[in-house]
């Protein structure tokens, strides 16, 4: 059995479900990032939230529901499990991630007693803020690349758990994880309500893109290789203009 690493995107379903059951004041799960009531989340009953999450993993939130479903099917993964939770730069994101972090190893111990389990939270600067969306995706890609590459160096099998969070962020997290060597993706299908596992996809950017990024080809050579013209590459966001010159979209540069 090889040790396992989970990279987990985090949303607000824990707080929404906790509010429905009286563990959190209603409305705190739906605040805008700049809402003054964000400060109230620092006073939330964290111990009660952890107890709720650890005792009800299949009902409390998308993240623990997925992890519990994975461990129910492959309990050996709980024998040596490490994880990172990617949280938005908001009070909701921090609180949800911290509670899940405290609860997750308790959940894992129910599938493999005496196993090794540990993890941490990475708050992605700007994630969750409308005016920082692009920059935040860059930072998310960088964080995932670093963590998944480290997991591979440690001999761990890295998976992305992508049920939590908004679709644009979780979709980009999947792409970044595959590019960094993820061996699979886990999520709970929102219609089927069951665990879905996507297999390993050895994803690499087109060689022509890498050459362009290294300065070994210009935008016209890149366009010919990809079967488009330069204007189309700009229209679809592959290239951006900066200082009178064209460069690769910074999102793709980070993936490289």
Automatic annotation (TrEMBL):
Q: What is an example of a Pfam family matching this protein? A: Cas_APE2256
The signal peptide annotation in the UniProt record is none
CRISPR system ring nuclease SSO1393-like domain: residues covered: 58-200
Matching InterPro entries, A to Z? SSO1393-like (IPR013442)
User: Which Gene3D superfamilies does this chain map to?
Assistant: 1.10.196.30, Hypothetical protein VC1899 like domain (Restriction endonuclease-like)
What is the protein's name according to its record? CRISPR-associated protein, APE2256 family
State the species of origin: Pyrobaculum oguniense (strain DSM 13380 / JCM 10595 / TE7)
């Amino acid at each position: 059995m090889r040790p396992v690493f989970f990279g987990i995107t985090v949303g607000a379903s824990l707080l929404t479900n906790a509010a429905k059951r009286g563990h959190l004041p209603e409305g705190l799960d739906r605040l805008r990032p700049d809402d003054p009531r964000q400060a109230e989340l620092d006073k939330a009953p964290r111990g009660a939230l952890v107890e709720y999450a650890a005792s009800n993993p299949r009902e409390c939130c998308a993240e623990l529901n997925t992890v519990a479903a994975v461990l129910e099917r492959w309990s050996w993964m709980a024998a040596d499990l490490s994880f990172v939770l990617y949280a938005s730069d908001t009070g909701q994101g921090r609180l949800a991630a911290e509670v899940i972090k405290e609860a997750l190893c308790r959940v894992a111990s129910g599938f493999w007693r005496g196993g090794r389990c540990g993890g941490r939270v990475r708050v992605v600067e700007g994630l969750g803020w409308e005016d920082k969306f692009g920059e935040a995706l860059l930072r998310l890609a960088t964080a995932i690349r670093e963590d998944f590459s480290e997991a591979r160096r440690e001999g761990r099998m890295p998976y992305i758990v992508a049920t939590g969070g908004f679709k644009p962020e979780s979709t980009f997290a999947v792409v970044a994880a595959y590019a960094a060597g993820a061996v699979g993706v886990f999520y709970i299908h929102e219609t089927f309500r069951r665990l879905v596992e996507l297999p390993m996809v050895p994803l690499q950017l087109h060689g022509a893109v890498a050459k362009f990024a290294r300065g070994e080809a210009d935008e016209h050579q890149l366009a010919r290789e990809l079967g488009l013209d330069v204007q189309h590459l700009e229209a679809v966001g592959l290239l951006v203009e900066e200082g009178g010159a064209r460069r690769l979209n910074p999102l793709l540069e980070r993936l490289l």
